[in-house]
Give the backbone structure.
Amino acid sequence: MATGRTHRPATRSRGIPEATVARLPLYLRALTALSERSVPTVSSEELAAAAGVNSAKLRKDFSYLGSYGTRGVGYDVEYLVYQISRELGLTQDWPVVIVGIGNLGAALANYGGFASRGFRVAALIDADPAMAGKPVAGIPVQHTDDLEKIIEDNGVSIGVIATPAGAAQQVCDRLVGAGVTSILNFAPTVLSVPDGVDVRKVDLSIELQILAFHEQRKAGEEPALETAAGDGAQPAAASREAAAAAAPAASADQGPDGDVPAVMPA
Amino acid sequence: MATGRTHRPATRSRGIPEATVARLPLYLRALTALSERSVPTVSSEELAAAAGVNSAKLRKDFSYLGSYGTRGVGYDVEYLVYQISRELGLTQDWPVVIVGIGNLGAALANYGGFASRGFRVAALIDADPAMAGKPVAGIPVQHTDDLEKIIEDNGVSIGVIATPAGAAQQVCDRLVGAGVTSILNFAPTVLSVPDGVDVRKVDLSIELQILAFHEQRKAGEEPALETAAGDGAQPAAASREAAAAAAPAASADQGPDGDVPAVMPA
DNA sequence: CAGTGTGAAAAATTTCACAGCT
DNA sequence: AGCTGTGAAATTTTTCACACTG
């Protein structure tokens, strides 16, 4: 990679599709694993299998980053790890604060996956005075009263909300007011934030509900297999759409329009 | 298996778009809140604001379920709650097992959001003999040795994996072997499952990485902000739909649920 | 050859805008 | 009037398939 000093051609990274951005961490994880095994290069086919996507998609994704592969050979693992890390902004340190140190907040504080990716838990904040000073994952919990000061002193721009739903918006407002511009929300609430602030949410029960939807379908129909995934052959490759794809008309579903004896609470 | 890749748009039958399915839980949550406040009806505009999406999308989503609204009036809250619940399969009880009772597993066991949506934690399973019998969230932890029996005895079809990455695939195989057909994976690994089995993943560090990507971009074009057009990546969710909301822009940068993989490192 | 990079086609999803009920 | 339901257009994402290169 003699390109070490080549400055990125301004034309390059403009507008990477959101769908692609969402997959970069996945590629990075797979590449990191290869790197630890000292694998020098990978083909799009192999890497795609390891990341659980198909190779065409992976190549297209990488094409948005630039031409980092070698035709006939594949990609240099180390180089790609670096490029993706840089693209994701992981070559710098991101101090984050976790607000709401209950079961989930504590689990997040103990979660080792953050530190290994450039995220540093700068502080833990909770509204319960009784928790103040108590260490969780080796970090002393601080009271909500000092939230603004903590954010400012540590130059935090990313906040994690793990409070009960009722407190989420208020906490969010304070975080934003103090300068946070990216929020990861675990509370089951839709947060209102001003333009320029990013919010991503993780809702555990929503994921289960989506699974239940498909599960219900499976029960309704019998065995509907049907391989649909394009690439088979490789080990990994969980195909989520496998079931979603096949949905035989069959069963006269409930009439689309109201006549069905609507069972419903009143 | 390649081949036979004839596109079958026909199979659409009762097919609700995956993107829509992913939003149904969101609507349900908003509707439930309205229901608790005894609000009888809502317009697509109001409900959309509460769910963090725009009204056109909401109406289109509902159109896949049927015509449950009343022109000129809106939707009957109770009726819609019922219809969506039924569509999601939440009118029935879903016993689930959580495997891996570490910090995260324990947090999940204690998470109240499951029970309230029809999910019942039927059992907690861990490989550590020392944990056996110890109650977590009021439920005694059982040893992995009995995994198959537990699944069968309880008729479990949905499993949650919260083990370290290294154990995930093995646990997954056993769950599937015992009859589980839907898996929510919190381990930072791509799981291989046979056709017919659904897998959804949640990865905390991936969400943070996506935020970091956008955060980095913001820093780059620091100027006094302003809707600097030209930039491809769009930061926070636009507040275009906040029109009906209120002063603060309502934005819910909901993750592309369709497939944002998320996993967490151990 | 093997395998990347990519126009072009296909599919999925979102947004528009307005006809049509109530 | 007010608001839903929905074709049609616009946009995004995925998949194809093959030219091109090391």
